[in-house]
Predict the structure.
Amino acid sequence: MKADPGQIVALVGRSGAGKTSIVNLIPRFYDPLSGRILIDGFAVKYTTQTSLRSQVAMVLQDTLLFNGTER
């Protein structure tokens, strides 16, 4: 799978197709058993989880919204 800089990517597929697994690999919630995840040509396994996660955004299917006012 390849995404160009600035491109918005949506993972769509049937249940059990691996969408959640891919989403969990990108911010290093766990590391792949084989293969590699590259961002701008650099392997994410050499990037700190904190640095990597500060640059990734996800919108999950079951989103929790709060009702009320923030103070």
